[in-house]
Amino acid sequence: MIRQIKNQVKTRARRRRFHGAIQEIERKLRADTAGSEIPSISTDQSNEEDPVDEDGIQDSPQILSNHVPPVDMGDDSDLHYIMIYIDHIFPILFPFYRPTVLEGGRSWMLAMFLNHKTMRCTTRALAAHFLAIVPCRPTPVPLNCASAAHEDGREQTTSAIRQLQEDLGGLIEGGPMTTPDNVLRETKVLNGVVHMLNAEKILSVAYGTPSWAIVLNGLRTCASESMYPIWNADQAAFRFSVGSLLIDDILASVSLETAPKLEPYWVDILGDSPSAQNPVDLNLEDLVGCQNWAMQGVGQVSALAAWKKEMVRDGTLQKSEIKLRGSIIENRIRERLVVFMETTPGNEPDASDFSIDTFTNREIRKHSPNVTLIWAHTALVFLQVVVSGWSPFDYQVRESVAKLINLFSELSDAPTVLHTLAFPLAVAGCLVTGSNEGRFQTIIKRMGALANLGAMKSTVQIVENTWRNRDHVVAESQTMAVCLNSLGYPVLLN
């Protein structure tokens, strides 16, 4: 009996934390859309506990269920934009995400967009903005077309926010996440918010606002309250959302100068083995081309940078301590680099390995080893700055940056892959010196119009700011976070 009471208390505490996070997202979204005609969603809750049955399960309305009613798609334009996104835009934003035939491919996206109004509106907004930036033909986008696309994007963003408020309000009132349908309901809303976050990472650059941080902060809490396996029809969407969120959490922590908040879940989700052959629940290589250990390395360095900032603020930083902590991270990354180089197969698969997935994914998969190497060496360069301070002319830093430039150059024929490397390019670009500056500019030019889209546009602006102010930099106070915030607001380079 005592154990059952304790479990109920824990469940209710978890529910309050989750609802608090959801309410915070909704409050911020309302603040963002102040002035627009968006109906308010009541989130008032009674102080009384909801009825609990004998099993400790509270009754709640089924806001979403496995049986989705027919969707009113309106005109054909929604479907048109959805297919543009799936066929043309998504492969540019996530070129490495190519689920196998047996995994269902990307069919989950079409199902989610058709049955989820928030995701449908967000997709249309993102597609409209993309078409206003990246031309469909090898000529500049006409101004009238770009203007119309931007206007449609704003309208769809407003609709997406309105629908998301309704989803969040229903989730708050829906009771605890203790039944399969409730867990599914939570997962669908989480997928919708992650999709909006992916859109905000691009749209916020266009509008010059850090609105991505609002959504991400609430998402971190929501995800941390629901990090347990969900194996159902929405598994593919959930896995994509969790993977995307984990990466965003790591990269946002650099700009926000905090440790990654989802780090406690890395071991369970991403694994902690130096062997690439070791099976894990989620392989980021399938999402962004980078193996888990390399992305975790960036997160570990970011956590060290946040710790150093606290020690400097308190006046308790000891050089020996930060060097020790840094050496532990460096040794871990270099050990895994050795294993990676020994176990990475050649680009050409054996004849017996050919399948339909080999033919469709072969061209993009050949870049995965380079992408993992780029993230690993980015972590090492970032670590040098955190441990030893800002010293772009230091021999070791120059050698490390030159290594990165060489790796980027090997991807010059893959602009969509380069476009996914905004953070590594920012790190290398801010520290590049001498003749490598020209090589860096050439790499950016190879992306064409993609260099003006989303996080890559911020990367170019950040690097230009750093070069412009190089003679006025105070090495003692210059950090990677200072560079990433030089636009006047924190950026999420993903």
TrEMBL record:
The keyword Membrane does not apply. It comes from the Eukaryota. GO terms for cellular component: nucleus. Pfam families: Fungal_trans_2. Residues 46-57 have a biased composition (Acidic residues). InterPro entries: Fun_TF. Keywords: Nucleus. It is found in: Nucleus. Residues 33-70 are annotated as: Disordered. This is Uncharacterized protein. The lineage of its organism: Eukaryota, Fungi, Dikarya, Ascomycota, Pezizomycotina.
